[in-house]
Design a protein that fits this description.
The protein has four helices and two strands. With about 120 residues, the chain is mostly helical. The chain folds into two domains: about 45 residues; about 50 residues. It has a two-stranded antiparallel ribbon with strand order 1-2. Helix 2 packs across helix 3. It is flat and about 65 Å long. The mean pLDDT is about 85.
């Protein structure tokens, strides 16, 4: 019986970090604002991570929205880092933000190209 497999040679770690960051944010905000027990927050973390991964894999538009939002998030983080380095000028912060946005979009785009160019291989066991 032939089965279809997508052959993957590499693993994009930026997405794993982003799933973890988003899941932690969802769990912490739920625990803080809804005042629920932290053990339930842990379950919310696991459920949020699973839901985000499922949505990312199954829904194409979610992939793009998630990637764009996190790219701007990384740019904002780099901007704040630049503000801490040089408080007199915004140029450093803006340059850091543009570089972080470019690198993040490139990392996500590279992952999407890999999925688009993946070959389906059929073989029998």
């Amino acid at each position: 019986m032939a089965r279809k497999y997508i052959y993957r040679k590499r693993y994009n770690k930026i997405l794993v970090y982003e799933f973890i960051i988003a899941s932690i944010a969802i769990a912490v905000l739920t625990v803080v604002y809804l005042k629920i027990h932290p053990a339930i927050g842990l379950l919310i973390f696991i459920g949020a991570a699973a839901l985000l991964i499922y949505l990312f894999v199954e829904i194409r538009i979610f992939r793009y929205i998630f990637s764009i939002l996190f790219s701007f998030g990384w740019a904002g983080t780099a901007y704040l880092f630049g503000q801490n380095l040089d408080k007199k000028s915004d140029t450093t912060s803006i340059v850091f933000a543009i570089i972080a946005l470019g690198v993040s979009i490139w990392a996500h785009w590279d992952n999407f190209q890999f999925y688009k160019d993946a070959k389906v291989i059929e073989y029998d066991r």
